[in-house]
């Protein structure tokens, strides 16, 4: 059986006069009395079929019953369209297929939604994902993602990195999120974990002598879902012995430049800008700043140490932001409510009117030096944050992004890449009263940071870096600890006991003690990278078969309860009253 000679999107004026066969889905049918027009869609694009009852009466009889998403095979002659019927928006818009034979290969039941329908509920789209994936946007997303992976593989292998797979069933280790656990019939009561990342395995590979490793790895994290977060994710994972940060940066820059060029036709300038974590927090209130607009945050902590305005004088940190709009009282109240959602106690402000006169309840408490420092252009507002440095950064960083969108300050055509470096090594968990790792417990401190581990752990910086584009983190990495003694010191700081160290990481500590080279690397989430490249607001639309925001697959119904006999074989008993326990007790 000859299904087709070309894809629908390949039809061109040079095919005029040829007899060809096409096959695909009916995207649209238009019945003009006698003539029937069908837009035929396949992975190549769209082509117009014309069924004339005088030319092909049997085909015309079949055409009248065709609905959207029927699968068709059509054979006939390619003809040029009349000049007034040419569609300049389609590559195939200058020609059409005069159908002689039309076969319905498959019918379609009534559709739960139309492919061109807007604002379809996401759960409904995922429930009928095979239909949703036929939409042009989803076809673009999934095909672009595949192209991204192809480019990444080519660049990694050209740089001498070897593709090595690591286990999907592994040992549970603390890496930030909860593990997905996998029971095993052969060892009842024992569990594997699906890997949150191949972190320890890639370190072991480098220690094994594979000096340049990479993998397109599947990772699993049992955490709450957001617009930019998945429980099942795919990442480029890279590790190298005797790490060279400049080489890693150049490799990622070259890869991203090629991705943006080949997928979007965008010319991305390299090298990318760099900024320390402290600078990013101070200037933008974020460790992944969006540089497509200004609204930089400025510091006034020292200036306000002796201020008559007590909120400023007594705050550990005072920063401010100049906004090019004179806000009304109602607008300021809305901004204050927004700031409080992010942890602010209030929102101090100075408003400058069209004549440059200041309006604010705090102006009378500020000195001439303070007012001069805060003075802005007419029709502007100065917004202040006064609190702990982390709170001020969080509040003003969120306000900055909010106002960038609200005031339409963002250059939507720009691509602004940035390396953020020198992250903190540790952060204090007030609830648990202990230090936790900012990245993971294997991250290497800087030489200065090593000296600060006992005296001032919070000041220690890590040899860690993130790659950000337009405010979205698309890659992150670090150098690792290769000395067992230093690794034990970090574990001790994290209050991981000697017994727990041996139980959870004994094999890694043993490997580090047997000739481990300095090593480090970087990882890039393919899903989030696709999201950034395609300017998609929801990461789930870069994945072929995602779960919804509740972690459920509406298409297959997963996850599902498991019969008691299966659980018994695994040595598992559900807690009474928990979801799924009804199936176990037969009620």
Question: What does this protein look like?
Answer:
This protein has 587 residues and is an alpha+beta fold. Helix content is 29%, strand content 24%. It is built from 17 helices and 22 strands. It has an eight-stranded mixed beta sheet, sandwiched between helices. Strand 1 and strand 2 (35-42) form a beta hairpin. Helix 4 runs antiparallel to helix 6 and helix 9 (329-341) crosses helix 11 (389-406). The radius of gyration is 30 Å and the shape is globular. The relative contact order is 0.10.
Major β-sheet profile = 8 strands, mixed
Helix content: 25-40%
Strand arrangement within the widest β-sheet reads 6-9-10-22-21-20-17-11
Mean pLDDT: 94
Radius of gyration from the CA trace?
Answer: 30 Å
Runs in which pLDDT lies below 50 for 5 or more consecutive residues are none
How many angstroms separate the termini?
54 Å
Give the helix/strand class. alpha+beta
Beta-strand segment tally:
22
Form type: globular
Q: Roughly what fraction of the amino acids lie in strands?
A: 15-25%
Number of helices: 17
Compact summary:
The chain has helices at 57-63, 122-127, 129-132, 136-158, 199-207, 245-264, 277-284, 310-313, 329-341, 368-374, 389-406, 447-452, 484-493, 498-512, 526-534, 564-570, 581-585; strands spanning 19-32, 35-42, 45-51, 71-80, 95-106, 162-163, 181-183, 191-193, 212-220, 232-241, 273-276, 297-299, 317-323, 349-352, 358-359, 380-387, 417-421, 426-429, 434-437, 464-469, 472-479, 519-525. With 587 residues, the chain is of the alpha+beta class. The relative contact order is 0.10.
């Amino acid at each position: 059986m000859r299904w087709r000679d070309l894809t629908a999107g390949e039809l061109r004026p040079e095919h005029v006069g040829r007899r060809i066969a096409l096959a695909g889905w009916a995207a649209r049918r238009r019945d003009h009395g006698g003539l029937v027009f069908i837009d035929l869609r396949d992975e190549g694009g769209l082509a117009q079929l014309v069924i004339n009852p005088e030319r092909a009466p049997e085909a015309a009889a079949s055409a009248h019953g065709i609905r959207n998403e029927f699968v068709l095979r059509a054979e006939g002659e390619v003809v040029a369209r009349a000049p007034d019927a040419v569609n300049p928006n389609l590559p195939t818009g200058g020609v059409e297929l005069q159908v002689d034979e039309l076969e319905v290969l498959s019918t379609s039941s009534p559709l739960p939604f139309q492919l061109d329908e807007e604002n379809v509920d996401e759960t409904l789209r995922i429930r009928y994902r095979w239909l949703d994936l036929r939409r042009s946007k989803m076809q673009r997303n999934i095909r672009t993602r595949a192209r991204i992976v192809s480019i990444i593989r080519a660049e990694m292998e050209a740089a001498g990195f070897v593709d090595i797979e690591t286990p999907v069933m592994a040992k549970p280790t603390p890496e930030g999120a909860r593990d997905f656990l996998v029971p095993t019939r052969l060892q009842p009561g024992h569990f594997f974990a699906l890997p949150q990342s191949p972190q320890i395995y890639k370190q072991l590979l480098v220690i094994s002598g594979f000096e340049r490793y990479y993998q397109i790895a599947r990772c699993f994290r049992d955490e709450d879902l957001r617009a930019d977060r998945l429980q099942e994710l795919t990442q480029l994972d890279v590790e190298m012995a005797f790490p060279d940060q400049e080489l890693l940066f150049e490799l990622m820059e070259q890869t991203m430049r090629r991705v943006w060029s080949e997928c979007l036709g965008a010319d991305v300038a390299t090298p990318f800008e760099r900024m320390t974590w402290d600078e990013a927090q101070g200037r933008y209130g974020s460790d992944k700043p969006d540089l497509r607009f200004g609204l930089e945050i400025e510091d006034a902590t020292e200036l306000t140490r002796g201020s008559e305005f007590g909120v400023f004088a007594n705050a550990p940190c005072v920063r401010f932001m100049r906004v090019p709009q004179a806000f009304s009282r109602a607008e300021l109240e809305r901004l204050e409510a927004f700031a409080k959602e992010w942890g602010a106690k209030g929102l101090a402000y100075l408003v400058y009117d069209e004549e440059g006169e200041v309006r604010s309840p705090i102006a009378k408490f500020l000195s001439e030096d303070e007012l001069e420092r805060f003075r802005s252009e007419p029709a502007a507002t100065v917004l202040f944050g006064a609190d702990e440095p982390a709170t001020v950064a969080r509040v003003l960083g969120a306000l900055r992004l909010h106002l960038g969108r609200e005031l339409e300050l963002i250059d939507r055509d720009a691509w602004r890449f940035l390396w953020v470096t020198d992250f903190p090594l540790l952060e204090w968990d007030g609830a648990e009263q202990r230090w936790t790792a900012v990245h993971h417990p294997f991250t290497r401190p800087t030489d200065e940071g090593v000296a600060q581990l006992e005296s001032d752990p919070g000041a220690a910086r890590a040899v860690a870096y993130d790659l950000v584009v337009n405010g979205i983190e698309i890659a992150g990495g670090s150098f690792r600890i290769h000395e067992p003694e230093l690794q034990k010191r970090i574990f001790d700081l994290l209050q991981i006991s000697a017994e727990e160290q041996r139980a959870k990481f004994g094999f890694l500590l043993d490997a580090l003690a047997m000739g481990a080279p300095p090593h480090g690397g970087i990882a890039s989430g393919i899903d989030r990278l696709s999201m950034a490249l395609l300017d998609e607001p929801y990461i789930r639309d870069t994945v072929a078969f995602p779960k919804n925001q509740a972690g459920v697959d509406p298409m297959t119904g997963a996850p599902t309860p498991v019969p008691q006999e299966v659980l018994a074989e695994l040595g598992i008993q559900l807690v009474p009253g928990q979801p799924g326990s009804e199936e176990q007790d037969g009620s």
